[in-house]
Task: inverse folding
């Protein structure tokens, strides 16, 4: 199912949920019954919460341009061990 947006000249826009690919160019307005034309709009981006939209954008960007960070995001800064045996471990 997909949500399609239509606009009645008198009553404004409204949504109709139909199986994908079955939307007709016009439907009857649910308020006045007049023919309402289909609108072509972005796929509900405005209704996506801002934090979710930012996370999706960041994930898409990271596919080609990963963020370079100096430490683990949100984590505490790395603490040097005081165990002398750890000093012999390889560094990278
Ligand atoms: Zn109407």
Result:
């Amino acid at each position: 199912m997909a949500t399609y947006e239509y606009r009645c000249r008198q009553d404004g826009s409204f949504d109709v949920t139909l199986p994908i690919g079955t939307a007709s160019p016009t439907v009857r307005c649910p308020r006045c019954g007049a023919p309402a034309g289909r609108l072509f709009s972005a796929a509900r981006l405005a209704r996506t919460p801002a934090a979710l939209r930012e996370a999706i954008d960041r994930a898409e960007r990271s596919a080609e341009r990963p963020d370079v960070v100096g430490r683990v995001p949100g984590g505490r800064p790395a603490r040097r061990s005081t165990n002398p045996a750890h000093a012999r471990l390889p560094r990278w």
User: Anything to note?
Assistant: The first strand starts at residue 2 and ends at 8. The longest helix spans residues 50-62. Helices lie at 50-62.
